[in-house]
Design goal:
The complex is a heterodimer.
Chain A: H1 2-11, E1 22-26, H2 29-39, E2 43-47, H3 62-70, E3 73-76, H4 86-92, E4 105-107, H5 141-158, H6 163-188, E5 195-198, H7 204-209, E6 213-217, H8 228-241, E7 245-248, H9 254-263, E8 267-270, H10 284-299
Helix pairs in contact in A: 2-5, 5-6, 6-10
Chain B: H1 3-14, H2 19-30, E1 54-66, E2 85-98, E3 103-113, E4 119-130, E5 137-145, H3 166-172, E6 178-187, E7 193-201, E8 249-259, E9 264-276, E10 284-296, E11 307-321, E12 324-328, E13 335-339, E14 342-358, E15 361-372, H4 377-382, E16 393-405, E17 408-418, E18 429-441
The chains are: A alpha/beta, B mainly beta.
C-alpha cells in the first residue's frame, strides 16, 4: 500500500526535488556527450551502446531494461538507427515516461533536415535503406547544434526549475561548436572536392559539411556485405575517378578496407563514428577534432 | 479539391497507404481540410511516420534427407523438417503494434503444409501486454508461449538450429507449451536485471503436451513419433474437464542477468509448471527447468559479428499417472491388469554453442539428451518392453548458417540420432537439412 502511494506521488510529479539529478539514458555515446554538455551537473547520463560498436547492431542486454525502467528521459538517435534493438527494451521497461510520444522520450532526428530521405518507391532490393533518411547526422556540427538546442528545451520541460542552467550550457556549447566548426572548415578548405570512398553510408553528413565528395561505398547497398564483383568495379572506379581516401570505422573488416585502399591507390583512414570510438574522442569536440585532424594529415 | 489536400493525397499514394486511408483523405478533401485530422477507423498499414500495425511474414522452408525412411519418427518438433525432400516448416504472419497508450499486442498466425500436402492454419500466439503498470509489473493475457526456459518462449525463426531440441519437444510438446491464459511479471528492484513471472493457463489442448493435452487426430500437421498418443503412460487418455481452479496449469519463472564484463552477458533462469494430466482425476504433472545463456561480443564489432554464445537447458518431468484397470483378452480369457497410481520421472538437456566467425556467418554445435530417470511399473506389465515415448535418445547437430542480410538466412544442418538399438522406434539415423528463411515486412527487433 505504501508503494502504491509512492507511485501516486510520482504521478503527481512530486519526484523532482530541487537537488535530484535528472536520470537520462542515451542510446549512443555521441548523444550522451551532447546531453552531458547541456545537462552538466544537473543530469546523470548512462549510454547503452559503446563508442566502438556498430550502433545498428547493439545487443538488447537485459541490464538495459533495468536502466530504462528507472530513467526519466530516453534520448535516441531515431530515423531507424536503433530499430533492431531498442523497441523490445522500451516495451519491457514498464515506464510510461519513455513510451513513444511521451515527454521523456526524445528522438534527436525529429525536426532535423536529414539527408537521403528516399523519394521514390522504397523496397528492400535497394538494401536496408532507412525510410526516414540517413541516421548518422551527428557528424555534421550544425545538426549537433540543433540537437543540443532541442535537448535544452526538452530538459527544461522535464525540470523547469533549472531552465536557466540548460539554456546557458546549450548556448555555450553551440557558440563553442560553431567557432570550432568555422576553424575545422577552414582547415579542410584546401582539400575541398576531394573524392572519398566510405565503407557504410555513415560519413555522408561529415563529407558534406566539410566539402568532401562521396565517390562510392564498399558496401554495394546499405547493410549488404561486398561481393568480389562489386569490389572490382569499385576499385576500377576509384582509379579513374581519382579517389584519394578510403574512410572506414575501426570496426569494419580490416582485410577488405586495406584491399580497397591498396588496389584503388588511395589512403585508408580508420575514423570513429561515435564519441568513445577512438582514444581522445571522449566528447563531441574531441571526436570532430580527431576526424578533421586525421583527414588533414592524410591529405597534406 | 484544394491544393492542400491534393498534396496530402499524393504523399499517401507514394508511401503506399491503403485504400481505406486514401478514401478518408478524399472525402476530407471534398469537405473541409480540418477534418483530415480524423483518426482512420480501419486498420492502417505502416506509412511514413505512423505505425498502427507492424506486419511481417517469416517463412522457413527446408529440404533434406534422412537415412530413416520416415524422418518424422526422428524429428520430434512440430515445425521440424519431417520428410525426405521438401518441408514447409511454416509461414508466420506476425502482426504487432501498440493497441493504445495502455497495451501492446502481438499475434502470430502460422500457415503450413503437412507431409500429406494439406494446408493448415495455427493460431500460434495472440496476446496483449500492458505497457506501463506501476511498480515494474506487467500483465499479459491471451494465447501465448509459456515463459518456461529459453527456447519455449521463442518462435522457431529465432532458434540457432532448424529443429527443436529433443527435450523441449518431449516435455513441452512438439509445438511448445502455449495455451490461453494470463501472466503477471515483476521487474524485481534488484541492482541487476531480474524478473519474476507467475501465470495460469488452460491445461487442455494439444499444446499442453505433458498436461491434459491429447494427441490430435487427422488433418493437423505432422508431429513426431515421440508424443504420447492415445495411451499416456500405458493408460487410456481420460477427457477431464476443469472443475476447479486446481485443474488449470500454473507456471512460474525467475530470470536474472548480469553483465560479467563490458563484452560478456550472462542470463540464467529457473522455471516450473504444474497442472493436471490426461490419465484421470487427480493425476498431475510437474515440470522443472533450469536455463543458462552466455554471450560474448567484442566492444568493436561489424553488424554484430564476431560473437560467441552458449546456451543450455535442463528439464525434469514428474508425471503422476492415475490408477487404472485395463481389460485384456476376451471371454473366459479376459483378465484385468491393475496399474497402480505412480509418479515417474524423466529428464533431459541440451547444450549448444554458436560462433559468429565472420560477417553473416555462424557455426553452431548442439548436443541433445533425453532419458527416463526410472522405469514405470506400467512398462513391465503391458508389453514387457520400454515406453518408446520415454526412451533414451541422444543427438548431435552441427550447423552452418549464412545471413546474406538481416532479412534472409540459409542454414545447413546435420543430425546424428543415436538409435539405441531401436528402443525409440528407429535405428541410428543420419539426416541433413538445408533451410532457407526469409522475412517480408517490418524490421524485426531482437530480444536478448
Amino acid at each position: 500500500m505504501k508503494t502504491y502511494f509512492l507511485f501516486l506521488a510520482l504521478m503527481l510529479g512530486l519526484h523532482t526535488s530541487a537537488s535530484a539529478k535528472v536520470n537520462v539514458v542515451a542510446t549512443t555515446p555521441d548523444l550522451g556527450a551532447i546531453i552531458e554538455a547541456v545537462g552538466g551537473t544537473d543530469v546523470e547520463v548512462t549510454c547503452l551502446a559503446r563508442g566502438t560498436e556498430d550502433p545498428h547492431f547493439v545487443d538488447a542486454r537485459p541490464s538495459f531494461i533495468r536502466l530504462l525502467n528507472k530513467t526519466e528521459l530516453l534520448v535516441e538517435g531515431g530515423a531507424d538507427l536503433e530499430i533492431g534493438w531498442l523497441p523490445p527494451l522500451v516495451n519491457n521497461a514498464r515506464n510510461a515516461r519513455i513510451l513513444p510520444g511521451a515527454s521523456g522520450r526524445f528522438v534527436a532526428a525529429e525536426n532535423l533536415a536529414l539527408m537521403e530521405v528516399p523519394t521514390g518507391k522504397l523496397d528492400r532490393s535497394q538494401g536496408d535503406v532507412h525510410p526516414y533518411g540517413n541516421p548518422h547526422y551527428l557528424l555534421d556540427p550544425e545538426l549537433a547544434c540543433q540537437v543540443a538546442d532541442a535537448l535544452a528545451t526538452r530538459l527544461s520541460r522535464l525540470d523547469p526549475e533549472r531552465v536557466g542552467n540548460y539554456r546557458k550550457r546549450a548556448e555555450s556549447f553551440v557558440t563553442t561548436l560553431r567557432k570550432k566548426n568555422t576553424l575545422w572548415k577552414k582547415r579542410l578548405t584546401p582539400y575541398c572536392g576531394t573524392r572519398v570512398v566510405t565503407y557504410h553510408k555513415s560519413f555522408d553528413y561529415f563529407l558534406k559539411a566539410f566539402g568532401l565528395e562521396l565517390a562510392g561505398t564498399v558496401e554495394p547497398k546499405p547493410g549488404v556485405e561486398p561481393s568480389a564483383a562489386h569490389l572490382k568495379s569499385l576499385v576500377a572506379g576509384m582509379k579513374t575517378g581519382g579517389v584519394r581516401l578510403v574512410i572506414a570505422e575501426p570496426n569494419r573488416p580490416a582485410r577488405i578496407c586495406q584491399r580497397v585502399a591498396r588496389e584503388g591507390d588511395a589512403r585508408l583512414l580508420r575514423l570513429p563514428l561515435l564519441v568513445g570510438g577512438a582514444t581522445g574522442c571522449d566528447d563531441y569536440f574531441g571526436l570532430m577534432e580527431h576526424n578533421v585532424a586525421a583527414i588533414e594529415r592524410a591529405l597534406r | 479539391m484544394n491544393r492542400y489536400s491534393l498534396s496530402f493525397l499524393t504523399a499517401g499514394l507514394s508511401l503506399g497507404a491503403p485504400l481505406s486511408l486514401l478514401r478518408a483523405e478524399v472525402s476530407a478533401g471534398q469537405t473541409k481540410p480540418e477534418t483530415r485530422q480524423e483518426t482512420p477507423s480501419t486498420l492502417t498499414l505502416a506509412r511514413s511516420g505512423a505505425s498502427y500495425l507492424n506486419l511481417s511474414l517469416i517463412t522457413d522452408v527446408a529440404a533434406g534427407a534422412s537415412t530413416e525412411r520416415d524422418a518424422g519418427t526422428v524429428q520430434m518438433g512440430g515445425h521440424d523438417p519431417a520428410q525426405r525432400g521438401f518441408t514447409v516448416q511454416g509461414a508466420e504472419l506476425v502482426l504487432e503494434g501498440y493497441v493504445d497508450n495502455y497495451f501492446r499486442a502481438m499475434s502470430n498466425i502460422v500457415y503450413g503444409l503437412n507431409t500429406h500436402g494439406e494446408s493448415y492454419l495455427e493460431l500460434e500466439e495472440v496476446y496483449v501486454e500492458t505497457l506501463a503498470l506501476p511498480n515494474g509489473l506487467q500483465l499479459k493475457a491471451g494465447h501465448y508461449f509459456t515463459e518456461f526456459g529459453r527456447i519455449n518462449a521463442q518462435h522457431p525463426h529465432s532458434w540457432d538450429f532448424v529443429d527443436a531440441p529433443l527435450v523441449s519437444a518431449r516435455f513441452l510438446g512438439p509445438d511448445g507449451l502455449r495455451n490461453p491464459g494470463a501472466r503477471l511479471s515483476w521487474l524485481v528492484p534488484t541492482p541487476f536485471y531480474s524478473e519474476f513471472y507467475v501465470g495460469v493457463q488452460n491445461s487442455a489442448g494439444e499444446t499442453a503436451h505433458s498436461f491434459r493435452g491429447v494427441a490430435e487426430g487427422e488433418g493437423g500437421h505432422d508431429h513426431g513419433h515421440d508424443h504420447h498418443g492415445m495411451d499416456p503412460y500405458g493408460r487410456p487418455a481420460v477427457e477431464t474437464g476443469v472443475h476447479g481452479i486446481g485443474d488449470l496449469l500454473y507456471t512460474a519463472r525467475y530470470a536474472a542477468s548480469v553483465d560479467l564484463t563490458d563484452t560478456q552477458t550472462f542470463l540464467a533462469g529457473l522455471s516450473g509448471a504444474w497442472g493436471p494430466n490426461a490419465t484421470g482425476d487427480g493425476a498431475r504433472t510437474q515440470l522443472y527447468g533450469v536455463d543458462l545463456f552466455w554471450k560474448w561480443k567484442p566492444a568493436s564489432h561489424n553488424k554484430g559479428f564476431p560473437f560467441v554464445s552458449f546456451q543450455t537447458e535442463m528439464l525434469f518431468r514428474g508425471y503422476t499417472a492415475a490408477r487404472a484397470e485395463l481389460e485384456h483378452g476376451e471371454g473366459e480369457h479376459m483378465h484385468i491388469h491393475v496399474l497402480p497410481r505412480e509418479t515417474v520421472w524423466d529428464w533431459g538437456a541440451y547444450a549448444q554453442a554458436s560462433y559468429g566467425f565472420k560477417e553473416g556467418w555462424v557455426a553452431s554445435l548442439r548436443a541433445d539428451y533425453v532419458a527416463p530417470l526410472e522405469r514405470g511399473s506400467y512398462e513391465g506389465l503391458l508389453h514387457g518392453a520400454r515406453d518408446e515415448s520415454r526412451a533414451i535418445r541422444w543427438r548431435v547437430s552441427p550447423a552452418l548458417t549464412w545471413y546474406p542480410t538481416e532479412f534472409s538466412r540459409i542454414r545447413l544442418q546435420y543430425n546424428y540420432d543415436h538409435g539405441n538399438g531401436g528402443v525409440a522406434g528407429f535405428r541410428d539415423a543420419h539426416s541433413v537439412w538445408l533451410q532457407i528463411e526469409f522475412l517480408l515486412g517490418s524490421h524485426g527487433a531482437h530480444k536478448f
